[in-house]
Design goal:
The structure holds 2 protein chains of 2 kinds. Chain A is α/β, with parallel strands linked by helices. Chain A contains 10 helices and 10 strands. A 6-stranded mixed β-sheet of chain A has the order 6-7-8-3-9-10, with helices on both faces. Chain A has a 4-stranded antiparallel β-sheet with strand order 2-1-4-5, with helices on one face. Chain B has 13 helices and 2 strands. Chain B has a two-stranded antiparallel ribbon with strand order 1-2. Chain B is globular and about 75 Å long. Chain B starts with 9 loop residues before the first helix and ends with a helix. The chains are: A alpha/beta, B mainly alpha. Chains A and B meet through helix 3, strand 6, helix 4 and helix 6 of A and helix 10 and helix 11 of B.
């Protein structure tokens, strides 16, 4: 894919992880992770459950703190001297498996909270921006409803719009379709494909291999806390190098 | 007396005076058993009989009947009343209920004059209102300290909580009145308010902390991920979801504040209880006045819980 080649040449580095290690108590979740993501690059993280994919992307907006190594996101190095975590998080949007919409606010208010409080926009500006992104995720008509009145797929699209409203430069997706009914997966993936086409830098943890194949510049396969293999989709699906990757692909592609 | 009809069940039973499905079932059990030989039972009856064998479930007997319930209640309350009246008569107590109303209010020359019990009630209400506000503020601050990352903050909160919860309220009010009051220069009324706020604040803290902790972790993460600071997350996301969860236990807290406010009578604040003590010192109407005062407190707390349950319903179905 030559988009990726362009990105590698031209794009500035958005995320850099070097020798990152993390433990949950005695459990070594992340083992010596090295990852480089450039502007406009789309990376899909996959691997069996418990392999540390979610922990890895949660380290990128510091929902989890790493213990060893270096993480630089949007030019800010994460460490004890990081003064303003919120400032970094404004540049890194995140969509969760569990949706995590604010149930006491309407869809519109969910989308306006970030812009008004974190970016200092006026209510009118925030409203316009929220409606713009709700249009992009194709649910402007639900703006006045509460999250509880929407389907799972609609809620996840609102969550995507809510993140985009803060206008981050990087978007993280933590298994965005895993908690949804099969029928609603497509509507969410369509929105994500649209987003990828606008040139957003994205890291997506997902088991949707079709999505990975169409959208990803790079697929990263993890197992037991380690990055086992990292390759562009063509090579990843056609000739995986490691046996563990082959086994994983056999497991998920045969049924 | 059979276990089902024992006195302790009275209160429970009276809350369920509306028709109970269980009763009809058990009646059907009996007919089922009776009609099993005659082979004309309805289709569902044998199953019911199988589920509730009559010798195991003893519902539907005479001691479960409503008339017996009512009888028990009447006998019980009658006995209680008789005990008080006969006791009073026995000690030669001279009931003078007619003297009580003027301690509440009086009409002199067409002008309404409030009696000492009414003015005392106003003071009690003032103390309660001030203390509720302060106790909630203290509770909120302490809860936030307990949940904060600051080690010192958590220690301060914990020491305060343990100190307040593990010493008698009476000792606390003496400490406030004789030690803290002179040092800070508070008058009696505000010493009372401060002491009650400190006392109830400790309980408010636990209620508020529980409410905050029961908001799912994902809400914090979502607020973090859209770049909200900690204070913004609390104010716009966490507390709006936590407050409805806190309301029922906070009702209990406000009610206990009303009741505990009587403690200020020991530092001579002229609240309802102090006024009652003074009236009794003058008139020796101890039976009548204490009963009246108890009724006033009861009326106050019941009104409060009715109001709060209305607020709860509004908050829960608000949007």
């Amino acid at each position: 894919m030559n988009i990726r080649e362009d990105a590698l040449v031209a794009g500035k580095v958005m995320i850099e992880m070097e020798g990152v290690n993390k433990w949950f108590g005695d459990f070594h979740v992340l083992k010596d992770i090295n990852l480089l993501v450039r502007e406009r690059e789309r990376v899909v993280l996959c691997g069996p459950s418990g392999s540390g994919k979610s922990t890895l992307i949660r380290c990128i907006n510091r929902l989890e703190e790493h213990e060893e190594g270096r993480i630089v996101v949007h030019g800010q190095e994460f460490g004890d001297d990081l003064q303003d975590v919120a400032a970094v998080r404004r540049e890194v949007g995140m969509v969760f498996q569990q949706l995590n919409l604010f149930p006491h606010l309407t869809v519109l208010e969910n989308c306006m909270l970030g812009p008004t409080k974190a970016r200092g926009l006026s209510n009118a500006e925030a409203r316009d921006r929220a409606m713009e992104y709700l249009n992009r995720v194709r649910i402007p008509e639900q703006a006045e409803k509460y999250p509880g009145q929407l389907s799972g797929g609609q809620q996840q699209r609102v969550a995507i719009a809510r993140s985009l409203c803060v206008q981050p430069e990087i978007m993280l997706f933590d298994e965005p379709t895993s908690a949804l009914d099969p029928e609603m997966i497509k509507e969410v993936l369509d929105v994500m494909i649209d987003l990828a086409q606008t040139g957003m830098t994205m890291i997506v943890v997902t088991h949707e291999m079709g999505f990975a194949r169409t959208v990803a510049d790079e697929i990263v396969f993890m197992d037991e806390g380690r990055i086992v293999e990292s390759a562009p989709p063509d090579r990843f699906f056609a000739n995986p190098e490691s046996d563990r990757t082959k086994l994983f692909l056999d497991q998920i592609l045969t049924h | 007396m059979p276990k089902n009809g024992s006195l302790w069940q009275l209160g429970v039973k009276f809350r369920y005076l509306r028709p109970q499905p269980g009763r009809r079932d058990s009646r059907r059990v009996r007919t089922a058993v009776a009609s099993q030989d005659s082979k004309d039972s309805a289709i569902d009856e044998p199953t019911v009989a199988a589920r509730f064998p009559p010798n195991v479930v003893s519902r539907g007997r005479w001691w479960n009947a409503q008339w017996f319930d009512t009888l028990q209640f009447s006998v019980f309350s009658g006995a209680l009343l008789w005990l008080v009246v006969s006791g009073a008569t026995g000690m030669g107590y001279n009931w003078q209920w007619y003297r009580v109303p003027r301690f509440i209010f009086e009409v002199v020359d067409g002008e309404l004059i409030w009696g000492p019990l009414a003015t005392g009630l106003v003071v009690t209400l003032e103390i309660t209102a001030c203390s509720v506000v302060l106790a909630l503020a203290v509770g909120l601050v302490t809860a936030l300290l307990r949940l904060s990352d600051s080690f010192a903050g958590r220690i301060v909160a914990k020491v305060y909580l343990e100190a307040v919860r593990n010493t008698p309220l009476l000792i606390q009010i003496y400490l406030f009145y004789f030690v803290l009051g002179p040092i800070i220069g508070l008058d009696r009324f505000w010493v009372g308010v401060a002491c009650l706020s400190a006392f109830e604040g400790a309980f408010a803290c636990e209620v508020i902390r529980g409410g905050i902790l029961s908001v799912p972790r994902g809400q914090w993460e979502a607020s973090d991920s859209i770049g909200l600071g900690r204070a913004q997350a609390y104010f716009h996301v966490i507390l709006p979801q936590a407050v409805p969860l806190m309301l029922p236990p906070l009702t209990g807290l406000i009610i206990s504040l009303v009741k505990n406010s009587a403690i200020v009578s020991v530092i001579a604040v002229f609240d309802l209880t102090t006024e009652a003590r003074n009236i009794i010192a003058d008139t020796f109407l101890s039976f009548e006045i204490w009963m009246t005062v108890a009724a006033i407190y009861l009326g106050l707390t019941i009104t409060l819980s009715v109001c709060m349950s209305y607020v709860e319903r509004r908050v829960r179905t608000g949007h």
